[in-house]
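Subject: mismatched residue count in predicted assembly?

I count 594 residues in my input, but I want to confirm that the predicted structure covers every chain. Input:
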Amino acid sequence: MLKIENLTMRFGGVVACNEFSAEIKKGQIVGLIGPNGAGKTTIFNVVTGVYKPTSGRILFSPEGKEEHQLTGLSPDRIAKAGVCRTFQNIRLFSELTVLENVFIGNHLRVKSDVFSAVLRLPHYVAEEKRLYEKSLYLLEKIGLQDNRNEKATSLPYGMQRRLEIARALATDPKLLLLDEPAAGMNPQETRELIEFIREIKEEFDLTVFLIEHHMDVIMEISEKIYVLDHGVLIAEGSPGEIQRNEKVVEAYLGVG
Amino acid sequence: MREKSKTQITLIILVLTVLGLFLANRYLDAYKVRIINLSGIYVTLGLSMNLINGMTGMFSLGHAGFMAIGAYTVGILTMPVSMKEMNFFMQPIVPFLANVEWGFLPALLAAGLMAALFGVLIGAPVLRLTDDYLAIATLGFAEIIRVLFTNTQSLTNGALGLKGIPNYTNTWWSWGVALVTVWFISFLMKGTYGKAFLAIREDEVAARAMGVSLFKHKVMSFAFGCFFAGVAGGLMAGLLGTIDPNMFRITLTFNILLIVVLGGLGKIGGTVIAAIIVTVGMEALRFLDEAMDLGFVQIKGIPGMRMVVFSIILIAAVIVREKGLLRRPKGSFTYVKN
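Triage response: the counts match. Full output below for your records.
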């Protein structure tokens, strides 16, 4: 599904990510962990086109389509290709309603041009109706159908995170990148989130790549984990292998 | 239920507008009718600027330039051939425009398209800038247009301006265009394209990550805004009958900005009301320019006094109601599908 080859990202003299390689197979849930400042979000930003990598390639091969490069494409093109993300520091459209937030996620799949939208031609109206229903369905999925006309920022924190996921789902992604989805959640909410991620993965046939600091979440949900420290990959493997890896323990706890 | 009552309200407003215009044309004097015309034109201008600045969040100050393009397009295209000869006595008009004499509707459309074309040409490189940088670039563009029109003698008659443009603009034209603008922009904002504009205003990074192409949508919004600015400029030419480059100074843009701020960024209804209030207010406060006797103090007539008062009103309005005259009550105007 996604292949990252020798990715390097430099900001001036700072190497945020050095020769990072990873492979994510279709249907997997893959975790990316590391101490603060290890370069995890940088990797997400490069994959989604926010930054152009200094060197290296990112190859994306959705089902039934040929493998192609994502490197150098703009974020909106990458979203169209089927890679969508959430943000570590929530980035909802704050003045808009909950429903509008999800509805905007649909926009990239709209086929009608802007004039048929303004004239409300039948084929556009039909398309819009379908997308509204899809948005409402997604809201139901995250349990926000009754809050649909509230301002997005009026929601509690945990719900805002879920709304971000729903908005990303509206873009019909093949690969979903979640940047610390459980940040700031209590244990109860975290449990629900794990269930929720599993559920949407099955229903929407997703592949999930996630960054997380809650070790219990990452260990439970991931099939494979990459560990990053100071921009360098220090370990990869199954949750069990990672837990036993000395380098990982060192990176997190320091050398005694 | 809600959709239905909304349609009814729209219809009632429409009927009242038509009735009001009919009565106004019949019973009011030429001066008042002219103010009504100006109000209609400012509604169009305010909405077109609000689309760019308030709904898409691009801080553009180029409106006077796009109006100038529209006004000159209408002026040149509708002016009778004999009138053109009289106007262009310094240098004859360029041959391919010498013998054209269009009707008002095609000329207005041409004015809008011309402004939109320039909007796209200017927008493509400039809309990459953000906030104050964009404001300065568009401001510069408007000045370039004005200076250019002052110097293209054989195309625009330079500083002499155009005189004797047929007075096609009446209340039906000015308010007809205003209603079309209201309709266009509200339907645009109702659909997914409008929502994409709002997304760009709210958070560009998130909008891009959700697949909204910044370039495409910004240029689109800008071009629509410029189109209506051009049409409004054309109406202005048809109303005044005389135009010259100095009409389209930066102060004109600020008058429209005032309407947008008073009406509330991104608000359609508010902009319409603010446009009427500002246009009527500018005339109603004219007495401030004249000599006044307040009993204890005598004030000699100071031209421009009303602008001072108007600015103070604006400052007060922005402090008291920073989100515009009509603040949106919680969730009541949001679009609900059943």
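The first helix of chain A runs from residue 40 to 47. Marking this ticket as 'not a bug'.
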